[in-house]
Amino acid sequence: MNPLTSQSNLGAIDAAHHLHPFSDMKQLNEKGTRIIARGEGVYIFDAQGRRYLDGFAGLWCVNIGYGRKEIAEAVQRQMNELPYYNTFFGTTTPPTTLLAQKITAHTGGRLNHAFFTNSGSEATDTWFRMARVYWKALGHPTKTHVIARRNGYHGSTVAGASLGGMKHMHEQGNLPIEGISHIGQPYWYAEGGDLTPDAFGRKMARELEAKIDELGEENVAAFVAEPIQGAGGVIVPPATYWPEIARICKARNILLVADEVICGFGRLGTWFGHQHFGFEPDLAPVAKGLSSGYLPIGAVLVSDRVAKVMIEEAGDFNHGYTYSGHPVCAAAALENLRIIEEEGLVDRVRTDIGPYFAAALKSLEDHPVVGQVDTVGLIAGVQLAADKGTRRRFAKPDDAGMNVRNHCLENGLVMRATGDRMLASPALIISRSEVDQMVETLRKGLDHLRDTMT
Ligand code: PLP
């Protein structure tokens, strides 16, 4: 028995000493923390031994599922050989270099270089600085402004929270910092009005063009967006959106940054989300599925266009983290990518379990409180609605989401709610019967909402 897990008073210790991220600590301490002690496949087990189907793969990250011994073994081997060395001042370690080769190999020759970080937030800070260094090195020092989207999410550091378009994050800490602007999001269900999804997609993309005109092209470095907004509610853009965004970035000569922290490593049935939508970013932050969350590691994938300038023109890039390319994290990531490759998980999502998951979840569209179900690969957003005919939302959207989410949790299913959207993002190894179990429990949660809220 793991002595850390068997300690009996963990709840009290947690309340006394542990401040949790994204939590109202007063409420949490009153209710008590759920202590997760073990994981196996798509299941997690709490300290009392209760089993939950994790419909969210941790935080959109445990792509290969829990309990893979191969990763533990790869980590142990690397720990014994070299637990740490850095990548500053002209050094590297074997797993770090091999990981750079392996990740970039899946970008179809587009993003051939990797700069390592420990998280998605650090990857955001990294490309944000790199984009400015790039333009300065090219003789355009005024090209510094970055355009992002309302309700986007790019992390919790000062730059990450500023680039993200989350009002509740901006309100804490006088954000965003200078040099960042936000445009609207392609959320047709809530904001599309009478427009068709395609017309709305084009309209929202053209907000980028208008914002560049307002700021002056000579002042804009980059536009950043998630291929599918994750934390914002799994907002799948209309088909017209990304082609128009890509066209505008090219025409106006600004860098296009695809935040692949959630969409990367098979989630959409392609190695990266931009491949699903068919556009070519200049920079792409990644994390999460890179190691399936087994150890913290992220990276910025860099196109030849940007790397050439960084290598040949920019001189020292005065940026990096003590643990950039940490050898043990890199060994875990290498083993994770080997598993994804050898088990054909990306193809499985595209051709087998993804379509099954889509059909199973779409069956919920017959439910009176479901307005629309959006899925791509193994990510889904289920839109709750008080009146599906008119797309009328519940008066208290957050309460509606929490109503369903809590019912699911009480019945052994972890889902996430963003406002009145129920989000799912299970491990890529989920079986058909586990998908069925997930949808059945979710349907009961929707019944509970119908019976308890109007
Ligand atoms: N970018 C996106 C799209 C994310 O979803 C997240 C985290 O959820 C981040 C960046 C930040 O990553 P991290 O939490 O590893 O710092």
TrEMBL record:
InterPro entries hit by this protein: Aminotrans_3, Aminotrans_3_PPA_site, PyrdxlP-dep_Trfase, PyrdxlP-dep_Trfase_major, PyrdxlP-dep_Trfase_small
MF terms (GO), sorted A to Z: pyridoxal phosphate binding; transaminase activity
Cofactor(s), names only, from the UniProt record: pyridoxal 5'-phosphate
UniProt xrefs under CDD domains: OAT_like (cd00610)
UniProt keyword Transferase, yes or no: yes
Key word Transferase present: yes
This protein's UniProt keywords: Aminotransferase, Pyridoxal phosphate, Transferase
Gene3D superfamilies named in the record: Aspartate Aminotransferase, domain 1, Type I PLP-dependent aspartate aminotransferase-like (Major domain)
Family per similarity comment: Belongs to the class-III pyridoxal-phosphate-dependent aminotransferase family.
This protein's name: Aspartate aminotransferase family protein
Organism expressing this protein natively: Rhizobium straminoryzae
